[in-house]
Amino acid sequence: xxxxxxxxxxxxxxxxxxxxxxxxxxxxxxxxxxxxxxxxxxxxxxxxxxxxxxxxxxxxxxxxxxxxxxxxxxxxxxxxxxxxxxxxxxxxxxxxxxxxxxxxxxxxxxxxxxxxxxxxxxxxxxxxxxxxxxxxxxxxxxxxxxxxxxxxxxxxxxxxxxxxxxxxxxxxxxxxxxxxxxxxxxxxxxxxxxxxxxxxxxxxxxxxxxxxxxxxxxxxxxxxxxxxxxxxxxxxxxxxxxxxxxxxxxxxxxxxxxxxxxxxxxxxxxxxxxxxxxxxxxxxxxxxxxxxxxxxxxxxxxxxxxxxxxxxxxxxxxxxxxxxxxxxxxxxxxxxxxxxxxxxxxxxxxxxxxxxxxxxxxxxxxxxxxxxxxxxxxx
Length: 379
Fold this sequence. Notes:
The chain is of the alpha+beta class. Helix content is about 35%, strand content about 30%.
């Protein structure tokens, strides 16, 4: 496929996938805040062998080639578990390209044609690849490097996407907290009075990790079920999550809340891998793995990210349930402080997730990055 001087190449081989992964790495070389992801991790997450998302989704990747160079990339996907799919919504994602309107136009024309051929009426993105993974394009906050599993996009990209006919659908926020700061005094006084009757807090038990992740997934699917664009997590994705957590999780930073013996809420703080891989340029070998291991296990990270947090909907509006998020935040923050963390990010949070935004505001967190989802009707 070709558009003017731009040739669009469907990704079909391992070598083409490697080229696909490296496009944003080249674009970010001169950006001091860009952090290249680990190539080996990207290779796993973008294949059916490594990512259970492919079991319930149709996915296609493309490269844009101009004058013999890879100048851009894009994906298109249809997630059959996402409720919006029944409404004719398909997703684009993993968009990265040189600052060239011809390249963006060719990439979007290709992705849109693929989605239309599969019956989609609306394209929304970027979604990389699932709404349970990286979502949104960075539009504010370029002066800070991204946290683990959060995107960092060139400043010109929003304008190029809008130039392709897309308009804002939703904004998504990343909040930042200082570990040194306690919760506001009124909330802290309530917490220090002790747990209400029937409420217990505990850390994750690594010996029962598979069971613990199933419990976490049950809470997550319930707590997030009302959120715009939410896709339930499958059992296969739960198992993949457990594998990931084994490598990253510190049980002291993963807390569950129970009410009358029933799992009711959770919060997990993961070390910010980006802090440890910033100078590896995507490579683990020959010495990158040893550097990563030392930085995580010996030196210790200073930053972290809370990608997973929730309270079951049946408890969220009760007196005991409303205090749970702050009890979990306090427990995680105290543990992080003891482990030498300095700050952590709560992300991502939809602009209309009023309940979670109120919790962040009340807890003293501040918005420091804004990501955007775009949409376009496919005529």
